[in-house]
Amino acid sequence: MIERSCFKGGRLFLLGMIFVIFLIFSLLIVEAVAENWYIYSMQQCLYYKTPKDYEAWSSCSDYARQISEDKIEKAYAVYSSGLMSCSDKAANNCYFDMTACTNKCNSDYDCFNKCWRSNPSRLDRECFDPCDKELKEVCWKGCDDKNKACATEYANAYKNCESIYEEDYEKTKAVWSISSEMEDYLYNSWMNNGNLGPDYPLVASEKYIKEKQASGEIAKEEGKPIESKINYDELTPVNKIYFKTREEKYNLYQQIQILEQNKADPSYKLKTQMMYDQVKELDNKAEIEYKNLLKSNPNDYWANYDLANIKNSRRLDKVYLEDIKNMKEEDAQMQQNYFDAFRNLDDATKKSLLSDIRKQNLEKLNLKSNPTVNSPFIQKLNAEKENTAQTYAEKYKMKVDDVKSSVTLMFDSMINYAKKSYDDIEYIRNRAGEGERAIEKTQ
Amino acid sequence: MRGQLKKHNKEKTATPEHKNYFWIIIKSILYVIGVAVAIFVIMVLYFLFFSCHDKTCFIKSANDCSTQHFDSKEDVGSIEYASGSYNSTHCWFTKEFVSFSSNEDQELVNLLKDKNMVCYYKKGNFDPDWVNTWLFGLNSCQGELKDSIGSLVVLTE
Predict the structure, then answer these.
(1) How much is the pLDDT for B122?
(2) What are phi and psi of A99, to 5 degrees?
(3) What is the mean pLDDT of residues A221-232?
(4) Which of A132, A186, A224, A294 is most buried, judging by how many CB atoms fall within 10 Å of its CB?
């Protein structure tokens, strides 16, 4: 009796196992077919290079992009987590911010990812991906300059990762390249013919491109210098420096964008470096011009503000490797520029500037109202702000309230400057009146 | 049938071979417990004698680029400071809330919890302001905690 029921249970177990194995294999097969189907369907989209049915073509293109983005996100997660185990040692020597995150988060991938993403350095992020063949050379070179042993370790780590993740990576690359080929076709067609193809009316292509530009998927007039709509002779001296520098910088960044499309070019690194040097040179030139302006009018708000922002942006570039002592000296100079900038604004402008900045930060933090003064942490921040204000009020011979407002402005700039677009800076400029008047004159 | 099976099982468990297995399992468990206790004792000794218990010790240690953790109990809550090196000359420092004062505003707790900031410095150039203040030295750091503090400073009068 017992033997019989045992046998029955064993047979059931065996059947169950067979069913589970069958299920796993089925899923694997379905997934493999689906993977290839994505690529196949996107290739089909690509074959219709002259889209007669615009809507169908457009949705096909969007689908391809969505799929490729999903896949890239997935592959990124896979080899990022793999990277933690297979190239920790190499990364320790090459990329300190990754080490900090790894040490902080240990094997908690979410924590690591969050920590890592808070680092704004794009090049470092890309170099972390040991499976990216195009960037490998650049990264190794970067390691090699600093440390030969590190370059070797990184090379070994790359080898390990490559063998583990090659398949996923290649598939992702394939999907991505098809998607970008479609975008290229669309873009080139628009640039060369003014429309999507011989069968497609101009008005629709313009609509499509504008939508893409609005969503940021296609750069506005990529690679083309902007046509200046500003009459520089109409501007005040400080705005002339600001807008001229901005326009020249924008044009350089456009050229950098073109260079970045051809990373295989052996001179790519040198050429982009030269462009970035030119951007820095523009800041140096602007700095001299602002300083000359300040000689005749030391209290010019925008000259001081722009100068502080130039210093701030340089600090962001240097922040990793510079000496803290030197930074502190730069900080002091920067603070003085912000104080000077704020000192001579009229009361109404000061009030509206601060009110706007506070409103923006409240929204950014997603807080319902200003934090309560009963909070121990806010009390601590208030006390430190008060102490700072007292110290600087004496040093810069300003009213304590004005120093506190300057500190507010300085922190807003410090936190938001890196993320601010030119438009945001222009917005603040407009709030204080002068920029608004200058732009009115040009229209 | 059932009686025979019981007897058979009883005989089976009583053999010397099975007694040996029993002791081997017991010994293995004891070894594992022993090793765990030893590791625990070493860790306790390490934290007692080699880790920092005040800010002065931490600042000194961080200035030398040493790997160090320190939980500081402050009015605003408990803060975790950590430092380490990524090569012989360059070092990193992190700061994070571990817990908050019981009087803390819940909205602020939600805003600041799980956020950290990382600061970089050269060996010998650790900035004590990172440990002693919330506002100073922030320019050399990055991370969500820094961004939140910066925005909160903007909101304070």
Answers:
(1) 74
(2) -60, -45
(3) 48
(4) A186
Chain B partners of A370 at a C-beta cutoff of 8 Å? Answer: 155-156
Among A382, A388, A414, select the one facing B150 at the smallest CB separation.
A414
Contact A324 B112 (CB under 8 A): no
Contacts of B24 (CB under 8 A, 6+ apart): none
DSSP code for A201: -
Q: What is the amino acid identity at position A280?
A: K
**What token pair was written down for A281?**
């040179």
Rounded CA-CA distance A417/A308 in Å is: 11
Are B140 and A327 a contacting pair at CB < 8 A? yes
Helix (H) or strand (E) holding B96: strand B90-100
Count of Cβ atoms closer than 10 Å to residue A443 Cβ: 8
User: What is the arithmetic mean of pLDDT over A369-391?
Assistant: 84
Tens of pLDDT, residues A358-375: 887 888 888 877 777 788
Q: Are A390 and A382 in contact (CB under 8 A)?
A: no
* B88: DSSP letter: S
Interchain pair A97, B92: CB under 8 A: yes
Model pLDDT, residue B59: 92
Tell me the C-alpha distance between B65 and A227, whole Å.
52
**A323 → closest Cβ in B125, B135, B151:** B125
Structure confidence at residue B99 (pLDDT): 92
The residues, ordered by sequence, that sit 6+ positions from A425 with a Cβ below 8 Å of its Cβ are: A309
Which range in A48-57, A70-79, A282-291, B29-38 is most confidently predicted, on average pLDDT? A282-291
pLDDT value of position A441: 36
Contact between residue A165 and residue A78 where contact means Cβ atoms under 8 Å apart: yes
Q: Measured between alpha carbons, how far is A439 from B111 in angstroms, rounded to an integer?
A: 39
Please name every residue paired with B79 in a beta bridge, in sequence order, or none if there are none.
Answer: B72, B97
Distance from CA of A335 to the nearest CA of B (A): 11
> What pLDDT is attached to residue B77?
92
A161-165, A327-331, B128-132: which has the minimum mean pLDDT?
Answer: A161-165
Cα distances (angstroms) measured from residue A78 to each of A68, A73, A102, A117? 15, 9, 16, 16
Token readout for A367 is 């807080």
